[in-house]
Each structure stands twice: as C-alpha cells, then as structure tokens.
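Slide 14.
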Amino acid sequence: LFCILKYFFFLIFSAAWDQSDKFVKIYLALKDVHKISAENVEVKFTERSFSVLVKDLDGKNHEMTVLNLLYPISEKESYKKVNKGQMCLHLKKT
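Slide 15: predicted structure.
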C-alpha cells in the first residue's frame, strides 16, 4: 500500500503585525490568495491561539499556528479579511 501526496505544506514564517486599542492585526503576504475559494482558507481562533490553513494556493498548502498568546483574545469577535495578495487576521482583545 502506498500513497501519493498531491500537496506539500509550507509554513508561513513571514508576517507583520499592528495593534490598536481593540485589535491586534496579523498581516500575511500570500500572492493570489484572493483568487482561491473561501472554503480553502481556514482560520481557527481560541482564547490564546490561532491557526491558519490556506489550501491549494498555487498547488501548495500554507500553514501558520501561533500558540500561547500573551493575552487572551475573543474567539467570537476575531475574524479574517482576505485582500489582494494578503490576508489580515483581526484578533479582538478582551
């Protein structure tokens, strides 16, 4: 029995961030991310972590996970925004 992998996973190491009184914003530069289906972009928030999985972007999967955030965030009020060439995570401060 053998398996052929169609996609490889690439860790996202490059990110920028900014913050305001209400949010911490994480900017991920991903070329053509705005062109893929919304179902291919998965973001999960917990009180002290977040993870991003972008599937089948130019035949590759891109992943980033940050655990043990210094301060808690609101899972329900945090969200993602996909723009041309980048994705922004809005982490709602509690």
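Speaker note: The chain has one domain: 9-93.
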